[in-house]
Every structure is written in C-alpha cells, then in structure tokens.
Write a structure and sequence with these properties.
By secondary structure, the protein is α/β, with parallel strands linked by helices. It has one domain: Aldolase class I (TIM Barrel, Alpha-Beta Barrel), CATH 3.20.20.70. It is built from 12 helices and 8 strands. An 8-stranded parallel barrel has the order 1-2-3-4-5-6-7-8, surrounded by 8 helices. Helix 2 packs parallel to helix 4, helix 2 packs parallel to helix 12 and helix 7 packs across helix 8. The chain is globular and about 60 Å long. The protein starts with 11 loop residues before the first helix and ends in a 6-residue tail after the last helix. About 5% of the residues have low confidence.
C-alpha cells in the first residue's frame, strides 16, 4: 500500500478547491507516452501551473499502476529540482469498478474517478458511496459522473450523435447523497472526435452555463469537472490525413467557451484528444519524411516541443498559470 505523498504528489481535492475559489481550472492532461510526460513537465516549469495527470484503466494495461505512480514521481522530482512548487496529482480517469479504484489508491494515486454514469441513478450513488468510504480513509478524493456524456473517450468510432445535458437538480441531490468530492457533468460537451453537436445552421451552441449557476447556488464552491473539452485543431487533422491517416468529421469546443466555464465553477478540465491528435499528426509527418528510419526517436524526440506548445496554449485558456 502506497500513499500518494510517498511520490511527492499533491491532494487533488485541495487543488480543485483553490481553483474554484480562484476562478481558474486545473488542467488535467492525459499522457500516453514518455514525450507527453516530459512536455507536461516542461510546461509546469515554464508556467508554474498546478497539474493533474490522468490515467485510465486502459493505461493501466499499457504501463501498470505501479509504473505510472513512479513516472509521476519522476516528473515531480524534476519540477521540484527546478525550484517550482506547483502541486501535481495523479488521477484515475473513468474507473468503472470499485476494484480499479482500489488498485489506483493502493499504488499511490492522489484521486480516483468512479464512473457509474451508465448505471441507474440509485446504483450510481451506491457505487460512489462505496468508493468514497474506502478512498477517504486514505485521504484520496473521489470524482463521480452524472448526466451521461455521449461518445467514448478512447474510441472515436463510438462518438455520440447527441449531447445529453445534466439535470442540475439531480446533480445537487447526487452530490449531497453520494459524498463525492467533485462531479463531472455535461453542459454541452461529449467524448470522441465530435465534442459538441452543431446547430442546424452549422454554428456551435454556447455551453449551458445556467447548469453551472444552478449547482453553484445550492452548493457554493463545489468543484465541477468538464470532460470532452478538446478544441481539435484542424491543422492536426489535416496533417494526419495528408500523411496517410483517415480522420473523419471532427468538432471541437471553442477555447472561449472553456475559458468562460473556468470562471463559473469548473475547477478541472480534462484534455486528452488534443494531446493525442497533436502527437499523432507530427509522428505521421515525420515518419512520412523519414521512411528509412528504424529508430523511433527520429519522431518521438521531435514531438516533445510540439506538445509543449499545445499544452502552453491550454494553460492559457484555463487561466491556471502561477497558481501554486
């Protein structure tokens, strides 16, 4: 059993509470390569931003929970050696079972998300309460989800065709009864490569800030989380397709919408697709330009700088720089 402080990691709940009070959102990036880990370290040092590292059960199968906590520790050590005090947390994203959450907690994760959003309301509450009971004994905070987000974060082919909005009254009841420390809701975003359903005329709707306001009125200061919030830069989509890829329709969330949400009670914003699509675009381009390459570092070492630029932009959008 490892406590997250053994790895120099910070308390996620405290990070989100500070963000909500400070009217900014903590970036939650999902690294799936060493280059992405290193680029995240680069931007923490450059901006003094708090940071949450996301890891899903799928990443468990790739890197194992114990290795992930030690990779996070290495990143923390590098940041501290640079004299930067920014808090860094390691978070289980979309854990679907009690057992997955326990495995993350035992391996030193700072926080866990138990996703019971596909369950009936009462069953979702019961599952979250069970995870909360175990997690809080180890100072680990729990994120839950309500108001099903359409689409599938790690399989773009399963993107939803309709965005479902969270009922604020149900959210308020859920927060009070489940004991969760933060809640992922849908105010107009969804997973996959189509993050938002366009209006009939092709324009994009605003996010439903009234849902945030309704929750804030009843439970002041409670941290809300947004998933499915990538912008999906068309440059990267075009680069992928120009170099042998085949990415179909994409719709991202405008940066201005995410910036506004960060001032209205959203304390954590998950960004996965934007990081992956940037790395993939440059990898495809470099492989195309170097067909003779047999060493993967021909492309991996060069994607780090590209990832850094993307992450710097995201931190600017979320307003999280210099909050430590």
């Amino acid at each position: 059993m490892h406590h997250f402080t053994e790895f120099g990691l910070s308390n996620t709940k405290e990070m989100l509470e500070r963000a909500e009070k400070g009217h900014y959102a903590v970036p939650a990036f999902y690294p799936i390569s060493i280059e992405q880990f290193n680029a995240i370290g680069d931007v923490i040092i450059a901006t003094k931003t708090p940071m949450i590292l996301l890891a899903s059960p799928n990443l468990f199968r790739q890197l194992e929970p114990a290795m992930l906590s030690r990779l996070a520790q290495g990143l923390v050590d590098r940041v501290r050696e640079a004299g930067i005090p920014s808090p860094i947390a390691l978070h289980l994203d979309h854990g679907h079972t009690y057992e997955e959450c326990v495995a993350a907690i035992e391996n030193g994760f700072s926080s866990v998300m138990i996703d019971g959003s596909l369950l009936p309301f009462e069953e979702n509450i019961a599952l979250v309460k069970k995870v909360v009971e175990y997690a809080h004994r180890h100072d680990v905070s729990v994120e839950a989800e309500l108001g099903i987000l359409s689409g599938d974060e790690e399989d773009a082919s399963k993107a939803g065709v309709e965005t479902l909005y969270t009922d604020p009254n149900k959210a308020i009841e859920f927060i009070r009864r489940s004991g969760c420390d933060s809640l992922a809701i849908s105010i107009g975003t969804q997973h996959g490569l189509v993050k938002m359903k366009p209006n009939p005329d092709g324009s994009l709707p605003e996010l439903r800030y009234d849902i945030l306001d309704a929750i804030e009125k009843e439970i002041p200061g409670f941290p809300i989380v947004l998933h499915g919030s990538s912008n999906i830069d068309r440059r990267f989509v075009e680069m992928i397709n120009e170099h042998g890829g085949k990415v179909a329709e994409t719709v991202g969330i405008p940066d201005k919408e995410i910036s506004k949400a960060a001032t209205r009670g959203v304390a954590k914003v998950n960004i996965a697709t934007d990081g992956w699509i940037c790395a993939l675009a440059h990898t495809r381009r470099l492989l195309d330009e170097h067909p003779e390459a047999i060493d993967s570092r021909v492309f991996t070492l060069k994607t780090r700088a590209e990832m850094k630029e993307l992450y710097l932009h995201k931190i600017d959008v979320l307003g999280s720089a210099n909050h430590y």
